[in-house]
Design brief:
single chain; alpha+beta; Beta-Lactamase; Helix Hairpins; 4 domains; 5-stranded antiparallel β-sheet; 5-stranded mixed β-sheet; 13 helices; 55% helix; elongated; binds adenosine-5'-diphosphate
């Protein structure tokens, strides 16, 4: 029994004893006890009423009373103080959070389960021209009217960021699900970064185009000189010819890469004649290999969707690499495989293989495991960069599985369209 309840009981018994004495004095014990009881019930209701009034409008002034009521009011007062303190603490955390998100250079918007705006920072207001009084509670796609964005929001596939243009800015936007079906949208202006990228691409493309003509002229003269070569000039002329051919190859691959980087990505590709594509790539490899390796085809029917010429270039680069980096007489296989998620077109070889530390860097421009060997085999260091560029444009991935001395598997893997 709590002290309050014990005190209440003592109070009640004292009161009833008092009423009993009053009843005895005035010769009406039952009436006095009944009246005592009634007054006690009235007192109890009075206190209930005070509690409900306080609960309707809590304040730090709790009523004072006797017995158990005193304890109840005392506990309520402490509960109120605790709640008040934690509310103040929460409010200050929220204030600090809002201050830091307001200072963020990235546009940040909190969306509820119905994509309605719950909160946004000044950077978001500036980027998407939102007004705090009017736009909280509005659906974001009613305010950011951009088909690419609306589509992205509708599809709810937020693993990859979205790049789109709005109010003359190029924006990179991420949406992260959190909390109770809410979403955190963050976006940043990448206009300047894109302009710099464009300048870099233009520079490489222009420089490659500018170099193409003089090298073609040089190569013509070298061929002419080789027709009249003698013993002393034979070796130097041969070397010069090899190097100009190398330069020509590098230039045409640089131009190819620049073309891939600057042309628009097609959102949905059409299925292409996969038998024709694979036959063409395979026959070209047989001609290039000239019987040095045993080339095999292991094909299950797959429906390839994409750009015919780009994919032809990617698969052909993989086969050329396999021919380059596989000792004579070994097997090289062009294969396709598929499952319910997608399909892969790949090349398996029994070549020199690659140590795992190089694998993540192979698609970088001019990255070569063994520069001497690549040069000697006529490599430019750009083949896998082209493959990756083509696959990126097709939302596909390049999988590389290789061990030194045990050969390699390079697979171009595509996901089935939903
Ligand atoms: P390269 O023109 O030098 O072949 P790539 O970009 O095509 O340039 O390939 C980059 C590097 O990856 C190559 O230099 C080589 O070291 C390695 N590589 C590519 N394919 C294979 C393969 N099938 N087997 C072993 N190494 C490979």
């Amino acid at each position: 029994m709590t002290t309050g309840l014990r005190r209440e009981l003592e109070l009640f018994l004292t009161w009833m004893f008092f009423m009993l004495i009053v009843g005895a004095v005035f010769d009406g014990v039952l009436v006095a006890l009944g009246t005592g009881m009634l007054l006690y019930i009235v007192w109890t209701f009075y206190n209930f009423n005070r509690i409900s009034q306080w609960l309707a409008k809590p304040s730090k002034h709790t009523p004072e009373s006797l017995g158990v009521w005193d304890e109840v009011f005392y506990q309520l007062y402490h509960l109120y103080k605790r709640q008040h303190r934690s509310r103040r603490k929460l409010a200050s955390i929220l204030k600090r959070f809002q201050k830091s998100t307001q200072a963020l250079p990235y546009a940040t918007i909190v969306l509820n389960a119905n994509d309605e705006i719950e909160w946004f920072n000044p950077a978001a207001s500036h980027m998407f021209q939102l007004r705090s009084q009017h736009d909280v509670g509005q659906r974001i796609d009613n305010l950011v009217r951009q088909p690419k964005f609306t589509n992205y929001l509708m599809k709810k596939k937020f693993e990859k960021p979205l790049e789109f243009q709005i109010n003359q800015q190029q924006v990179l936007l991420n949406i992260t699900p959190y909390g109770n079906s809410q979403h955190l949208l963050s976006a940043r202006d990448i206009t300047q970064r894109n302009q710099l990228d464009e300048m870099r691409r233009d520079f490489i493309s222009n420089a490659s185009h500018e170099l193409r003509t003089p090298i073609t002229v040089m190569s013509g003269y070298i061929e002419m000189l080789r027709e009249n070569e003698d013993e002393t000039t034979q070796i130097p002329l041969e070397r010069i010819q090899q190097q100009t051919e190398r330069m020509q190859n590098i230039i045409s691959e640089l131009i190819e890469l620049a073309k891939l980087e600057t042309s628009d990505v097609i959102e949905t590709y059409e299925p292409i004649d996969s038998n024709k594509l694979i036959d063409e790539v395979f026959n070209e490899a047989i001609a290039l290999d000239n019987g040095v390796h045993s080339l095999k085809l292991s094909i299950k029917p797959v429906t390839i969707t994409g750009n015919y010429d780009e994919l032809r270039m990617a698969f052909s680069n993989l086969l050329t690499n396999a021919i380059r980096y596989t000792p004579a007489g070994k097997d090289i296989e062009l294969f396709t495989e598929s499952d319910e998620t997608g399909y892969c077109v790949g090349v398996r070889d029994q070549g020199i293989g690659i140590n795992y530390e190089h694998i993540p860097r192979l698609t970088e421009r001019f990255y070569r495991v063994d520069e001497g060997r690549s040069r000697e085999k006529g490599g430019t260091g750009l083949g896998l960069a082209i493959v990756r560029q083509v696959l990126d444009r097709h939302s596909a991935t390049l999988r590389i599985d290789s061990k030194p001395g045990q050969g390699s598997v390079f697979s171009c893997c595509f996901q089935h369209a939903n």
